[in-house]
Write a structure and sequence with these properties.
The protein contains 9 helices and 10 strands. With about 300 residues, the protein is of the alpha/beta class. The protein folds into 2 domains: about 160 residues, 3-Layer(aba) Sandwich (Rossmann fold); about 100 residues, Rossmann fold, CATH 3.40.50.1100. A 6-stranded mixed beta sheet has the order 1-2-10-7-8-9, with helices on both faces. Strands 5-4-3-6 form a 4-stranded parallel beta sheet, sandwiched between helices. α2 crosses α3, α2 packs across α6 and α3 runs parallel beside α4. The longest helix is centred in the middle third of the chain and has 17 residues. The chain is globular.
């Protein structure tokens, strides 16, 4: 039987970083592995929860083809939902801050989504408020990546088991950028069930830094799916460090990725410098072509 597009979500490559960790890390017996989520069909780790949220909502009878879906997004979830909606016959309205990259907006529109842009000063908080107001006005149904348990479930059922299998159970540390927190919640739950000693490290921006895809939420906007107890350690990363590591990731490892991935790699390398005989896995969330207009890469 032939596969559908949805069948190609997941089972992404897990590759060893060869140059960035450096000789000292390797001499200590530590390896740093990157899971290349940009290989998903819509180009990011968010393909997993987007498909999960739509399919589980369909099974519950909450949505059906022809309905209008609304979602607040900073980019990747919106693109993934637009792709999944296109394959299943939904109208997709995405609410996002106006300062998100041109490439992200163009990709969403290419999948047929309608965009509602909110003032940049309001950030994702305002985008979430606007989406909820639209829902309350009866304009569509919100799947709500920030509160929907089907978001982390995608990683508990997919990403986590893949990491465990691909490392043959050797994973000692998992490092992930934190945005909606679905990835780190689902993977943490699965890996801790296999081995409670696995250290879960979350990456957040330093105060004053703005890194696409990584957030430090005000308490009132903290995602409802987030459980503090599932994260052992928080690593703050500056915008400058995330951007520089993103460029180095392309130049030194041949991995063309987005800025949140640079932040996660920077945090993973910090951890790698502290430990011995460790297997550290981190998530490369998406591809770098969504960030060309931001100026992060040399012109």
């Amino acid at each position: 039987m032939y596969k559908t597009l949805e069948d190609t979500v997941g089972q992404t490559p897990l590759v060893r970083l060869k140059r960035l960790p450096g000789k000292l890390v390797e001499a200590r017996g530590t390896v740093v592995l990157a899971k290349l989520e940009g290989n998903n069909p819509a180009g990011s780790v968010k393909d997993r929860p987007a498909l999960s949220m739509i399919r589980h909502a369909e099974r519950r009878g909450t949505i059906r083809p022809g309905d209008t879906l609304i979602e607040a997004t900073s980019g990747n979830t919106g693109i993934a939902l637009a792709m999944a909606a296109a394959t299943s016959g939904y109208r997709m309205i995405l609410v996002m801050p106006e300062n998100q990259s041109v490439e992200r907006r163009q990709t969403m529109r290419a999948f047929g989504a309608e965009l509602v842009l909110t003032p940049r000063d309001g950030g994702m908080e305002l985008a979430r408020d606007v989406a909820e107001r639209m829902r309350d006005e009866g304009r569509g149904i919100i799947l709500d990546q920030f509160a929907n348990p089907d978001n982390p479930l995608a990683h508990y059922e997919g990403t986590g088991p893949e990491i465990w299998t691909e490392t043959q159970g050797r994973v000692t540390h998992f490092v992930s950028s934190m945005g909606t927190t679905g990835t780190i919640m689902g993977v943490s739950r699965y890996l801790k069930e296999q081995n409670p000693a696995v250290c879960i490290v979350g990456c957040q921006p330093e105060d004053g830094s703005q890194i696409p895809g990584i957030r430090k939420w005000p308490e009132e906007y903290l995602p409802k799916i987030y459980e503090r107890a599932r994260v052992d350690r928080i690593e703050p990363v500056s915008q400058a460090d995330a951007e520089e590591m993103t460029r180095r990731l392309a130049r030194e490892e041949g991995i063309f990725a987005g800025i949140s991935s640079g932040g996660a790699i920077a945090a993973a390398l910090r951890v790698a410098a502290e430990v011995e005989n460790a297997t550290i896995v981190t998530i490369v969330c998406d591809r770098g072509d969504r960030y060309l207009s931001t100026g992060v890469f040399p012109g």
